[in-house]
């Protein structure tokens, strides 16, 4: 009886092991057959600001933000893919250390509140993925974006406008599989975004300047935002 029981247990373990191996093989094959991935991330947006501000000088100040981000990835081969990244963020904008002209009647050094603006930079990345282990897959990518500025608020100025611009960026990250379909993602991106800004500050003109016939005060600026994006999220293959 004891020998029969041991023989039964041995057979059960053998067939269980064989079935597990076959399941893993089928599962791996199925995972490789998926052509699409979708990810949902939480992303920290950290701008790296630089600007050339006409008339009043100083530097630009754009705040950090935390946003949701959605992306879709299509695999042309096992290693080569394209990813479309979608996300929008709102940022407050101001100047630091500006020297206000006599027409405004302000101090020699001041910080101006220029309101806020929403950025929508849809980005297309071409990626290379490498399967290091069964569950760990790092990748790198490079691509282009077109940044759309919308819903501008002008702050202390009468009006403010931003030009939409093309830019580029790069990324690296990795996926950690939880199952064949679902995985965890960590992602780092650097985007190079720039815009030409025009500030209409005519409402800040002093009565003396208006009496002298000055009716407009335009402040032009060339701004580089160049944000770093650090993301963590989940993904699904289909």
Keywords:
single chain; 238 residues; alpha+beta; Porin; 2 domains; 8-stranded antiparallel beta barrel; 4-stranded antiparallel sheet; 55% strand; elongated; Outer membrane beta-barrel protein; OMPW; signal; OMP/PagP_B-barrel
Structural class: alpha+beta
CATH architecture of the largest domain: Beta Barrel
Q: Number of helical segments?
A: 2
Shape verdict: elongated
CATH class of the largest domain: Mainly Beta
Unreliable runs: 1-27
Query: What percentage of amino acids are in beta strands?
Result: over 45%
Structure in words:
The protein has 238 residues and is of the alpha+beta class. It has two domains: 1-33; 34-237, Porin. It has helices at 2-33, 207-211, and strands at residues 36-46, 50-53, 59-62, 65-75, 80-86, 89-96, 113-120, 123-129, 136-153, 159-162, 165-177, 182-192, 194-200, 218-224, 228-237. Strands 1-4-5-8-9-11-12-15 form an eight-stranded antiparallel β-barrel. A hairpin with a 6-residue loop joins strand 8 and strand 9. It is elongated and about 75 Å long. It starts with a helix and ends with a strand. Residues 1-27 have low confidence and may be disordered.
